[in-house]
Design a protein that fits this description.
This protein is an alpha+beta fold. It is built from eight helices and 14 strands. The N and C termini lie far apart (62 Å).
């Protein structure tokens, strides 16, 4: 919520303000605020006809911000904020063209980052700093070509969920990704701020360390990925030129039918297959469809999925031999 106008006594809102005649600052739902003696999380904002702002603080009905109200917002970057952040800082206005920096020039080359930038806008909700990287699991030795082709969907999900990454493009075996960090109401940014926030408040360093088998003291990301791809069921997978989306959809629909109205706790692998189009334990999925068939009978849906899983288990035995 933008608070803008003649507010000489409004100060310390996300680090922006002071005893100035005009303040532009942003209060967002989720911020911690102290207003008129009421402290807590901002849970709602309302702009009033007279220009004042009413903020719902925690369970309070609301506290109204007028031009003479003292507002204090907890600084989410108090532990890393630096004077360097103010040098030649540019406004975050949604124009991304001027808010990108070469990762090598700002000291991110050791993190394999080729670009650092800002996306979004405080006025539109939330702005993010992002670090752009590329990853080739096959050339880097993390996965074989066969493993990559079979488990590409799972690999994308695992990277996104574990490291907060957005997979922006895949070409061949190369994944392009952005790892992001929320700028939490900041209205100006420079390369020092973007770099510090990404380094300290994102999963960037975890990704760099854990995706490199040579990093001492960090778990290797691809260890579990390889194990799950080898044991999993990825219907229709086989590389970009041989992917059969119809087979994948048939498997999802059959799994959805099998678990409909049943506890997902009893059928976790079938539930995953229904939701994502793959599962990470083909043997367990086979056992679950056999169990579900006891109630449903050997109808077309369960019989077809069981045949696919039988075939998958046979392929896994072949690969192990």
């Amino acid at each position: 919520m933008e608070l803008q106008g003649e507010m000489p006594n409004l100060y310390s809102v996300n680090g922006v303000g002071g005893t100035v005649d005009t303040v532009a600052a942003f209060v967002q739902v989720g911020d911690t605020a102290q207003i008129n003696g009421v402290s807590g999380e901002v849970t709602g904002t309302i702009r009033n006809p007279d220009g004042s702002i009413t903020l719902a603080i925690g369970d309070s009905a609301g506290a109204t911000v007028t031009p003479n109200t003292r507002v204090e917002i907890e600084d989410p970057f108090a532990d890393i904020r630096s004077d360097q952040w103010d040098i030649d800082a540019e406004p975050i206005d949604g124009d991304e063209s001027s808010l990108t920096w070469d990762g090598r020039e700002i000291g991110f080359d050791s993190l394999r980052v080729h670009e650092v930038g800002v996306s979004g806008s405080p006025a539109g909700g939330t702005a993010y700093a992002y670090a752009s990287l590329v990853e080739d699991p096959v050339s880097g030795g993390g996965l074989t070509q066969e493993q990559f082709d079979r488990g590409e969907l799972y690999l994308r999900d695992a990277i996104s969920e574990r490291y907060g990454a957005d997979i922006t493009h895949i070409e061949g075996n190369v994944l392009s990704m952005d790892i992001t960090a929320e700028l939490r109401g900041e209205t100006h940014v420079n390369e020092a701020m973007a770099g510090d926030v990404l380094y300290e408040k994102s999963k960037l360093t975890e990704w760099v360390n854990e995706s490199d088998a040579g990093t001492y003291g960090s778990p290797y990301f691809y260890t579990d990925i390889r194990k799950n791809i080898n044991a999993g069921f990825f219907p229709g997978a086989g590389g970009a030129t041989t992917f059969d989306d119809r087979l994948r959809q048939d498997a999802r629909e059959a799994a959805s039918f099998a678990v409909h109205g049943r506890s997902r706790d009893r059928f976790p692998q079938l539930g995953m297959l229904a939701d994502r189009g793959y599962c990470l334990d083909a043997q367990a999925a086979h056992d679950e469809i056999v169990e579900a068939s006891k109630d449903l009978g050997e109808i077309r849906e369960t019989r077809g999925l069981r045949e696919l899983l039988d075939r998958e288990l046979g392929e896994q035995a072949r690969r192990r031999s």
